[in-house]
Amino acid sequence: MFESMRIGFHLPQTGQHAHNYDKLPGYAQALEELGAHSLWVSDRILAPVHPTVGYAGTDTIPEAFHSVLDPLALLAAIGSVTSRVQIGTNVLIAPWYPPILLARALTTIDVITHGRLVVGMGTGWSPEEYQAAGVPMNQRGSRLDECLDILTRYWTDNPVEYQGKHWTIPATYVELKPVRRPPVYLAAFAPSSFARTGRRADGWMPAIMPSADYDTTFLTQSLAAIRAEAEKAGRNPHAIDAIVRVNPKPGYTIDDILTTMTRIHDKAGIDHLYLDVNAIAESHDHALDLARQVFQRLT
């Protein structure tokens, strides 16, 4: 139906899925054979017993977050057993990580996958996670900016040297580079983050919840704002891409999901979408069945 639509899937990474890793390599290979364009992981380090801020506008943390596989280790593992499909983070909470270590890990994953890595980054929402990572949450924006600076230098310069507010890198030889510079996408939901995305990123990574009457206004207006910021910065606004994460809750129907994906493609002009199956799939087999239904109806 939609030859131009690129369809991806989030790897089953949380909750009971995390306890059944042995099934994940076969699942990823089956999705690649099915024709999936991309496979994704996300980033959680805590499930606070008494959260200051809950998940997705609630006052609680989903039980699934009690068990989470590490995103970078998972990407390396899945990247090594696939050969074509793009793999990516949506999103990695960049301020938690020393950028020099993150640069090394991301470069390694890109080398392992022969240049298939897509890097999605954000700043997160959980004060407890920042506390556990030993990072002041009120520095998240400036730390993300410095992380982007360091990644750019790590992937292009040799020697690499950096002096910033949060990190200093003495001049060092970095001869191992990615197969190609991984595209960097940013999660953004406010004017300041739209501006950063327009100035600095290759694209935008929003997450939405599907519904039978999903309204694409937020997507179209936000992407227009990001592209306007790109133009202000002297960049080509039309080069700013978008990848949408479709994030259903239990009880959502496959029709709700497919209707939403179709509407985003048709009305927002976004052709790369992926389905997060973690909350709705009962098993890896169920997740694969959902993927087959998506492909049967959309391709």
UniProtKB/TrEMBL annotation:
The keyword Isomerase does not apply. GO terms for biological process: alkanesulfonate catabolic process. One of its GO terms (molecular function) is alkanesulfonate monooxygenase activity. SUPFAM superfamilies: Bacterial luciferase-like. Coiled coil: none annotated. Residues 14-261 form the Luciferase-like domain. PANTHER family: ALKANESULFONATE MONOOXYGENASE, ALKANESULFONATE MONOOXYGENASE-RELATED. NCBIfam families: F420_Rv2161c (TIGR03619). This is Putative F420-dependent oxidoreductase. The lineage of its organism: Bacteria, Bacillati, Actinomycetota, Actinomycetes, Pseudonocardiales.
